[in-house]
From TrEMBL, chain A:
Keywords, in A-Z order: FAD, Flavoprotein, Oxidoreductase
Domain of life of the source: Bacteria
InterPro entries xref list: CO_DH_flav_C, CO_DH_flav_C_dom_sf, Diverse_Substr_Oxidored, FAD-bd_PCMH, FAD-bd_PCMH-like_sf, FAD-bd_PCMH_sub1, FAD-bd_PCMH_sub2, Mopterin_DH_FAD-bd
GO terms, molecular function: FAD binding; oxidoreductase activity
PANTHER family per record: XANTHINE DEHYDROGENASE SUBUNIT C-RELATED (PTHR42659:SF2)
Pfam families: CO_deh_flav_C, FAD_binding_5
FAD-binding PCMH-type domain boundaries: 1-178
Name of the protein in question: Carbon-monoxide dehydrogenase medium subunit
TrEMBL record, chain B:
Name of the molecule in the record: Carbon-monoxide dehydrogenase small subunit
Sorted UniProt keywords: 2Fe-2S, Iron, Iron-sulfur, Metal-binding, Oxidoreductase
UniProt keyword annotation of Chloroplast present: no
Classification via Pfam families: Fer2, Fer2_2
CDD domains (alphabetical): fer2
Transmembrane segments: none
Species, as recorded: Geodermatophilus africanus
Length: 289, 171
């Protein structure tokens, strides 16, 4: 099918974009970045916004920069650009690794990093990355700018803490001094994953000093697996410690079964992804030293 | 009807200025407004890849791109491959190696293959196989498509100076 009719605006500043969302509030407006989630939904008429605010001409939103210990990704930075960026490789290699799993290159050429996070698909890779890294979301609305921690951002499937008149203008990813890994299981390469795992581990003096683990596809939102993190910290990171962390993480999981995988299968796949992800992050953390 | 938007596209070297409804998909504007029906419409949600075209040199799904999003940009479609007198080496090799049966996926496959070879003029078969995983073909099992792309690669390397795209040739 084709998108139903809507009115359209192309502002050049964030302030104008917010004003347009306010002005068209009655028409259930949506913000358009790369469109790789929104346009398919509009083609199927699962989304029927009365007004679209296209961010493509807003100055400053296509910048990808380092700000101290943070990688700052603007709302119009394409996934393919981030994937190839030396700044991302240096400051957020977890993001670069996860991007390789996001659909296929022709989709990543258009799709944006921030748009995928704002879309908040519980099976998507980038929300789990934001959660694992303790990202901060910079949000601009009629009352000005605020920052939302990733841990408070994802509220449900396709539902975030963004108000209807707010725009997610950038995502700030703190540098994690350690090893990383993004591991997922998908039925076919490039499809949405059944389960994905983002793992970050730092090692000091032979013991895990810090760990952050998040998973997609196991709950209505991406989830941090605090039990796994606690199980890892202070341990030497041998196979027994990894297995204990996997046990701790999956003990708290209660995924819903669906046509792609039953609840039990999802938990089993999560175990495999966790084992591989934590193990790879540990090896990389040790290699860094 | 919603207000029309002015859109300027340079398609296969030719510049077009159009007034389009914002809800129009790029693939529909290419096919219906410009008559370039080589680009096919398949799944309409970015999965199958038959609508793949190059925008500013990068492959995109024209079925999940609004025409307004391509305003001011340069588009290459399958019609831009041949020079009018003959087929492009990729097209000839698809023909020769039977890289198609029903042909529905072919315009997208050709444009994606073109991008792969422009990025990597001497790819391994594995690189080609992984690269075209973005596009679905239900007839060939992909093997003949990979063979066609591999056969086109050395021909495109030889012809490289002559196959540079000509843009802005005509207003």
């Amino acid at each position: 099918m084709k998108p139903p009719p809507f009115t359209y605006s192309v502002p050049t500043t964030v302030a104008d974009a917010v004003a347009l969302l306010v002005e068209h509030a009655e028409e259930e407006p949506r913000v358009l970045a790369g469109g790789q989630s929104l346009v398919p939904l509009m083609n199927f008429r699962l989304a029927q916004p009365g007004h679209l605010v296209d961010l493509r001409r807003v100055t400053g939103l296509d910048t990808l920069r380092l700000d101290g210990d943070h990688l700052v990704v603007g709302a119009m930075v394409r996934q393919a650009t981030a994937e190839r960026s030396p700044e991302v490789a240096l400051a957020a290699p977890l993001l670069a690794e996860a991007l390789g799993h996001v659909a296929h290159p022709p989709v990543r050429h258009s799709g944006t990093v921030v748009g995928s996070i704002a879309h908040a698909d519980p099976a998507a890779e980038l929300p789990a990355v934001a959660l694992a890294l303790d990202a901060e979301m910079t949000v601009v609305g009629p009352q000005g700018e605020r920052r939302i921690p990733a841990g408070e951002f994802f509220l449900g499937p396709f539902t975030t803490a963004l108000a209807p008149e707010e725009i997610l203008t950038e995502v700030r990813l703190p540098r994690f001094p350690g090893g990383h890994a993004f591991v997922e299981f998908a039925r076919t390469h490039g499809n949405f994953a059944v389960v994905g795992v983002a793992a970050l581990v730092a090692v000091e003096d032979g013991r895990v000093s810090r760990a952050a683990v998040a998973a997609s596809g196991v709950a209505p939102t991406p989830v941090r697996l605090a039990a796994a993190e606690e199980a890892l910290v202070g341990m030497t990171g041998d196979d027994t410690a990894v297995e204990a962390a996997v046990d701790a993480a999956t003990a708290g999981l209660d995924p819903a079964g669906d046509v792609h995988a039953s609840a039990a299968t999802r938990t089993d796949i999560a175990r495999v992804c966790l084992r591989e992800g934590i193990g790879r992050a540990l090896r990389r953390a040790e290699d860094r030293r | 009807m919603t207000e029309l938007q002015d859109v300027t596209l340079t398609v296969n070297g030719r510049r077009y200025t159009l007034a389009v409804e914002p809800r129009r998909l790029l693939v529909d504007v290419l096919r219906d407004d410009l008559g370039l029906v080589g680009t096919h419409i398949g799944c309409e949600h970015g999965v199958c890849g038959t609508c793949t075209v190059l925008v500013d040199g990068a492959s995109i799904r024209s079925c999940t791109t609004l025409a307004v999003q391509a305003d001011g940009r340069t588009v290459r479609t399958v019609e831009g491959l041949g020079d009018g007198a003959g087929l492009h080496p990729l097209q000839e090799e698809f023909w020769d190696k039977q890289g198609l049966q029903c042909g529905y996926c072919t315009p997208g496959m050709l444009m994606r293959a073109l991008e792969i070879l422009e990025q990597d003029p001497d790819p391994t078969p594995e690189r080609v196989r992984e690269g075209i995983a973005s596009n679905l073909c239900r007839c060939t099992g992909y093997q003949y498509i990979v063979e066609a792309v591999m056969a086109a690669a050395p021909r495109m390397r030889l012809a490289a100076p002559a196959t540079q795209p000509t843009t802005g040739a005509q207003a």
